[in-house]
Each structure stands twice: as structure tokens, then as C-alpha cells.
Write a structure and sequence with these properties.
The chain is α/β, with parallel strands linked by helices. The protein is built from 6 helices and 12 strands. Helix content is 36%, strand content 26%. It starts with a helix and ends with a strand. It comes from Capnocytophaga cynodegmi.
Length: 236
Amino acid sequence: MKNTLRKILKIVTIILLPVSLQIFASNRNQTRTIKEVKVDHQSSDMYITDETVRRMVLNPQSKTEIGSLKINEIEKLLDNHAMIEKSEVFCTIDGILNVKIKQRQPLARFYEEGKFFYMDSQGKKMPLSDSFSARVPLVTGNIDEKHWENTYNLIKFIQNDEFLTKNITKINIKRNSEYEFDMRIASFVVIWGDLEEMEQKKANLKAFYKQMEKSNTLNVYKIVNLKYSNQVVCTK
């Protein structure tokens, strides 16, 4: 009988000891304080600074225990920031709070009624950043909800082409819903027209630009009109 009890106690001890040690270690980890916040922007463009992120997730004036962290609430707070698209937060057992930030990416800077703002990669309005200025085209003119989707599609089209991205510095939306471009080097204005036949317009502009660049006559013309089907109409 005694031998049986000893065997039972031994088995129970073998089962419960690892669990007890795990619970003890877990409780000890929960009482450890956060000693550092590491921020990973996953980008060299800093639309929100490390210091701003740190102030959002922790109070620098007091110690924070790992067990008191509410990760979901921290991520929700970060995701609601105007410069952040998505965040991921996790803590290691040695007290390092890791914050991964996916920032919103501006496609263009808009100027309307004396105010500037961005359009981001999802086609939404985005405020300017206090810490970083994006190198993107300026959009002016008839900016309203009616033209918003077409303008977004045009900007995405420009962004997907290296030549257009490099050379177009300004997009002007006309009242007739057509578009004009200012170029980085050439002094002429490009009349793009509407969003029809954009691949053909792009090919025509590239061919014209290459020819004028080769003959060193890029600045001879004031207007390069691409709105007519498969034509380049130039005005001096």
C-alpha cells in the first residue's frame, strides 16, 4: 500500500513540477518592467518619429510591468494615428517592447483653398507630416469628389512608370475634367486630356521627349498636346 502511494506521489510530482515551474516563471516575467521600446518603421521615410511612437505606447515618467500591457489597445491606438496604416506590437521576456510600423505612403501632395494634404496609396486623404516631406507630384486645380477617383487612377498610372514618375512634377485638374502636367526639366506644359488611351499617350510623350532631348530642343515648345488620338500637337 505504501509503495503504491509513493508511486502515485512520484507520478503526481513529475506531472505537476514542470507546470509549477512554468507558472512561476510566467508570473515572474509578468512582473518585469519594460526596459526598452524598439521601433521598426520598415521604411527610411519617417512620417512619424520613434520618439512619438514611444510616447504613444508607454509613459516615460513611470515604470510599466509586462503583465500590465494591453497589446490590442496599444495597436488600436497606433492604427488610429494619421501617419500609420498598420502596427504590430509584441513583448519579449527580457522586457523589450517591439513596435513594427507600416506607415501610410503618400502618392501626391494636393493644394486646395490655401491648404496642403496628401493622397495616400489607398486613395485616401492624409495630412502632411511634421517630420518628413514626401517627394511626390503637386496636384492643383479643380480638386473635388467628382475628380478624386480619376485623379487617383492617373497618379497610380504615373507611379507605375519610371519615366513619368521621374519627370512629372505637377498635375493640374482642369474644369473640363482634363489634366495637364508640368515637367521637371522641360519647360513645356503637357496637355494629357482625359484618362482614355493612356498607354498610347505615354508612348507618344516618351518618343517626343527622347527626340527633343536628342536634338537639344526640349525647351523650344511651350505646349505639347497629347489629347488627340495617336497625335502629338506642339505649340511654340
